[in-house]
Amino acid sequence: xxxxxxxSLLKTLHYLSLDxxxxxxxxxxxxxxxxxxxxxxxxxxxVILGICTWIIYILxxxxxxxxxxxxxxxxxxxxxxxxxxxxxxxxxxxxxxLMVFFLxxxxxxxxxxxxxxxxxxxxxxxxxxxSSDYQYFKEIFTAAIYCVCVSGGAxxxxxxxxxxxxxxxxxxxxxxxxxxxxxxFFELNDLPNTKNLAKKLGKKNCTYxxxxxxxxxxxxxxxxxxxxxxxxxxxxxLMAFCTTLxxxxxxxxxxxxxxxxxGEMVFWLPLLLLIxx
Length: 277
Description:
Blueprint: H1 4-15, H2 18-33, H3 43-67, H4 73-80, H5 82-99, H6 105-127, H7 134-156, H8 163-190, H9 197-201, H10 203-220, H11 228-248, H12 250-253, H13 258-265, H14 273-276
């Protein structure tokens, strides 16, 4: 059993979304290594990705707290520590700005475009009121931006992209949304009055979509070339399978919000490629 101090530390790291940050960096590393496993990974790009992912998640929750009283433990944590989190954002932004000078040109161009999209996203997020239908689909937009951040930087540096690289990126897009649907499903069970994607789509449709992603990732394996990309698809299938298991055994996993950190750690699974390659 973990001691109270260690458990408290792990819970704090989870509330800070650092498990999400690790998952983003690990998955981006996978895209940098495509298509043959010999791709050169640009470390500053991964560092900036981690920083930007962290900033986005902190900002997203701080903005949520401006619109309504925090309901879950993570939003309450951000509300209680908002001053220090705002200082953290400033420091992270300065570090990321300095590291921009070490990025490949293609990643810089990609990043400039993405920053514009992010400003538009947060502007729309702030302007829409709590009763708007936009609140239901905020999870989709956040997940889509996350996918673009994770895969886009790496793929933007490649002169040519193979068909299976596009499919792998699309699989990742589906995996992120599968995870969002599972989280949304759990949240709806805990807070029936909440406005989220599961409530908008209905629990039955959510179930179909969650299993549908798993089936699609399995089918996509037939399009992978033998070698590194085949292993990438196998990892993505494993990711979809693990997320599906979390959903299937939701009654047991829901205890103490275990589904959250388990769901985030699914995106650490590309580390298996270090062993398989």
